[in-house]
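Posting for a labmate who doesn't have an account.
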Amino acid sequence: MTKKKGIFDVGADINLFKQGIGSGVETKLSGQSKYSGTSSAHTTVAVTVAVKEEGRDLDSVIEIIIQQMKVSGYRERTITDYLNYMVQFRKATNVKYLEQITTDTIYSWLNSMDVSNQTKLTRLKCLKAILGKCFNNGWVQSKFWNGINIKVDKQVKKGVKKDDVMVLLSLLDLNTFIGLRDAVAVLTLYRTGVRINTLGQLQEKHIDFENKLLCMDGTILKNHKLLKLPLDDELIHLLKILIMQNDKIRQYYGQKNSYLFISYKGTSLDTKSTNNAISKQLHKYSKRYGLNNINPHALRRGYAKSLLDKGANLALISKALGHSNLAVTTQYLDLDVEEVVDNLREYL
């Protein structure tokens, strides 16, 4: 065994699951880069846009909005998506000035898309968010876009079943680094409900081993709010083993970071090219082992359903998931007809 190969072998005896199987590219609206400057939380963004005879130049409007989004802490990927949708909007409508955006131009843009209604709705929400910022800046006088909507028949996505999680965990080789890392990732997603992007940003400092807590600051959460979640003994045990294994790999490759989930070369998974590394692994396992609902979002939904089954109320589940409103949380809870009946009997 070579030294390099040895760092991927987990020395700890792990046999927990064998007992039973039950940087965004910022593109100018006309197609070339314009918004490449960096910004910090101390940047002051002017909201004055030069008004030409025809109206407010859309390039200048978007440039200022992007700077405001950066200062407000929007993620780079989110900003890039917003910008890309504005590129599409301008290409489809030939709009050059903010004042040219009307109900008709928005409908024209939507009709030009050869995509599903769900995708149209997503893009429309981004455009509305940008127009909302224009309204807040005093550049438009009314929210004329509020009445525009896309009808979508929402299908409730099911959460993963506990048995499927245990099947997967029993099939992973926890005596190898990748097997251990992926098993801990699956268990963390299923027992805390964190988003896959948050998982990639977790560091050792976020684990309070003494109090058995996952303590996440707002910088790694979508809603930018502090959140603490309890960890069980099994997950705490596995996290400690993973950290020891991470140290060996980082030391070998000369990497200096404290991320919980790293690549086999010791680098962070929280980059544009690899932030879905765990997702790709789960997709591979799903196909290999015939598990139909193994993915990060299904694990998050499974966590929500597990809390509900254990008696947690909707408000508590919503808080644990980091949702901004209860309506979003209800979409995570796949209740069949019999479950509705059984739960309502308690209130009769």
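Reply:
Got it, the structure tokens are right above this. The mean pLDDT is 84.
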